[in-house]
């Protein structure tokens, strides 16, 4: 059963108080205060006991109203409650409060047992009627809260690590929260239970977030945090932190992402029921299948599992053709060109691994997160462009060296040197991450995105600065390739670079028009 929120409970109490506040069985907070101050020498009343238990400052803030037959309706941060008895303990030092938390009724406490407990105190028909109405209102809202649940998720967040015991018997244990998310058409209920040493605590925290109050919901990948921002509403921020992840499983992160995606779809009026969600999932399944098919067709037309652009090795062909000339002209540069060749080889191997991991990501990714597949494909296209630009400028570097165009040669050389192209440590590090199946693709992408963007920006700048000498470079390259079988491959490479530039321009234009 989904518990009522503090807001729902307060609305019920406010409605009933306004309805009955002029009846003599209802006492305002001021009237309760007066009764609490009125003391008898011989005895202590229920109202005196409440005043004794509470400071007057707290008392003034917390009392909502009361029923004359000794029931106090009180608000607290954790929710409203009914105080129905003060019991003097054996020590006689202070009173023990007996109370019922309203949001527990129908969830942790049976409605009939609550009715029996309160009716035992009440004799007046109007008081009994008030309690009857209160419980009916709670039951109606509880049943409404159990309307169609679109989706449920159970996930964990760690809050701390504690130590216990002494000496050799000292041990560390995790303390964390289990969160049960129920996503409904207009709200999210979240039940959070504290777990320590695998034992669930009786202490639970219930949150109810209305979707129309959510200004934004985001899963922040860089800090592993799911956050709801409710603007100016009371309790305006709710977040779950997954960054202390020694016990957090991959599913917890995935579920947080799914919750984010689903809530956004509901707020965009694309989903309002379980049927809508199923229909959407079916359409997204088709969409995901199309992404997968189109991805393979674009980069592996013969479907042999290898990237088409890696099936020819243009740079090696050009380098092998000119190696004697390079050695005769300046043997000091032989080592540089070999390092450049090694870099391109490492980059091509990583690109193949990325191709395989991206295919795997699309096929295994949940349909609800299909947008993430789009993002991964987009990133892969950027990697392909980075590889093509590197090969393109590497060939130009050889051609300019052979043709004695030292201005172009050193411009390309300095750019490659700035990007550490002659040091293959970066590509080796990427290869290690890609080969480790424990590293998720989106995590790898996050770690290399900035570096890859820097590489592409630098190579784009280089291409722009060489625009004036492009025609002569093209003639030099064609001359280098005419005696090899790589002319077609180079033309395909040029086409790919130009196609990607148009793709980025169109994508940026669309985003501006939204």
Overview of the structural elements:
The chain has 514 residues and is of the alpha+beta class. It has 3 domains: 6-145, no CATH class; 151-164 and 172-272, Pleckstrin-homology domain (PH domain)/Phosphotyrosine-binding domain (PTB) (PH-domain like, Roll); 289-513, no CATH class. 55% of the residues lie in helices and 17% in strands. The chain has helices at 6-20, 29-37, 46-53, 56-62, 111-119, 125-145, 250-267, 274-299, 314-329, 334-364, 370-402, 406-418, 425-435, 441-465, 470-481, 487-513, and strands at 26-28, 63-67, 71-74, 81-87, 96-101, 151-164, 171-183, 187-196, 199-210, 216-220, 225-229, 237-241. The strands form 3 sheets. It has a 5-stranded antiparallel β-sheet. Strands 6-7-8-9 form a 4-stranded antiparallel β-sheet. Strand 3 (71-74) and strand 4 form a beta hairpin. Helix 1 (6-20) packs antiparallel against helix 6 and helix 9 (314-329) packs parallel to helix 11. The chain is elongated. The two termini are 41 Å apart. The model is unreliable at 510-514 (pLDDT under 50).
Salient structural properties:
17% strand, 514 residues, 55% helix, disordered C terminus, 5-stranded antiparallel beta sheet, 3 domains, single chain, alpha+beta, PH-domain like
């Amino acid at each position: 059963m989904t518990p009522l929120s503090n807001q729902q409970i307060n609305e019920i109490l406010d409605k009933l108080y306004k309805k009955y506040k002029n009846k003599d069985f209802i006492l305002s907070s001021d009237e309760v205060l007066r009764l609490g101050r009125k003391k008898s020498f011989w005895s202590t009343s229920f109202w005196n006991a409440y005043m004794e238990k509470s400071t007057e400052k707290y008392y003034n803030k917390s009392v909502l109203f009361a029923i004359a037959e000794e029931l106090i309706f009180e608000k607290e941060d954790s929710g409203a409650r009914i105080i129905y008895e003060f019991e003097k303990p054996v020590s006689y030092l202070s009173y023990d409060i007996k109370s019922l938390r309203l949001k527990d009724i129908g969830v942790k406490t049976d409605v009939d047992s609550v009715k029996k407990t309160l009716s035992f105190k009440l004799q007046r028909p109007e008081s009994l009627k008030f309690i009857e109405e209160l419980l009916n209102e709670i039951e109606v809202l509880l049943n409404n809260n159990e309307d169609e649940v679109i989706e449920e998720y159970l996930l964990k967040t760690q809050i701390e690590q504690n130590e216990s015991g002494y000496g050799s018997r000292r041990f560390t244990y995790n303390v964390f929260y289990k969160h049960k998310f129920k996503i409904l058409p207009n709200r999210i209920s979240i039940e959070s239970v504290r777990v320590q040493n695998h034992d669930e605590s009786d202490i639970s925290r219930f949150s109810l977030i209305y979707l129309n109050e959510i200004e934004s919901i985001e899963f922040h990948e860089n800090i592993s945090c799911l956050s709801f921002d409710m603007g100016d509403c009371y309790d305006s921020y709710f977040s779950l932190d997954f960054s202390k992840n020694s016990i957090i499983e991959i599913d917890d992160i995935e579920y947080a992402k799914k919750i984010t995606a689903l809530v956004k779809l509901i707020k965009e009026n694309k989903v309002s029921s379980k049927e809508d969600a199923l229909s959407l999932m079916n359409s997204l399944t088709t969409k995901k299948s199309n992404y997968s098919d189109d991805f393979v067709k674009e980069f592996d037309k013969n479907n042999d599992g290898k990237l088409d652009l890696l099936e020819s090795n243009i740079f090696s062909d050009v380098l092998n053709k000119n190696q004697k000339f390079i050695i005769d002209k300046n043997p000091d540069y032989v080592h540089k060109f070999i390092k450049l060749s090694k870099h391109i080889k490492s980059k091509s191997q990583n690109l193949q691994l990325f191709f395989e991991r991206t295919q795997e990501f699309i096929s295994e990714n949940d349909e609800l997160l299909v947008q993430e597949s789009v993002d991964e494909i987009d990133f892969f296209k950027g990697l392909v462009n980075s590889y093509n630009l590197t090969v393109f400028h590497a060939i130009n570097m050889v051609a300019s060296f052979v043709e004695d165009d030292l201005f172009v040669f050193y411009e390309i050389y300095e750019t490659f040197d700035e990007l550490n192209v002659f040091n293959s440590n970066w590509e080796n590090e990427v290869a290690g991450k890609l080969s480790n199946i424990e590293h998720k693709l989106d995590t790898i992408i996050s770690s290399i995105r900035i570096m890859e963007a820097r590489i592409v920006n630098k190579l784009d700048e280089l291409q722009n600065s060489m625009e004036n000498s492009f025609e002569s470079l093209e003639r030099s390259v064609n001359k280098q390739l005419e005696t090899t079988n790589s002319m077609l491959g180079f033309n395909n490479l040029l086409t790919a670079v130009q196609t990607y530039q148009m793709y980025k321009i169109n994508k940026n234009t669309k985003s501006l028009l939204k």
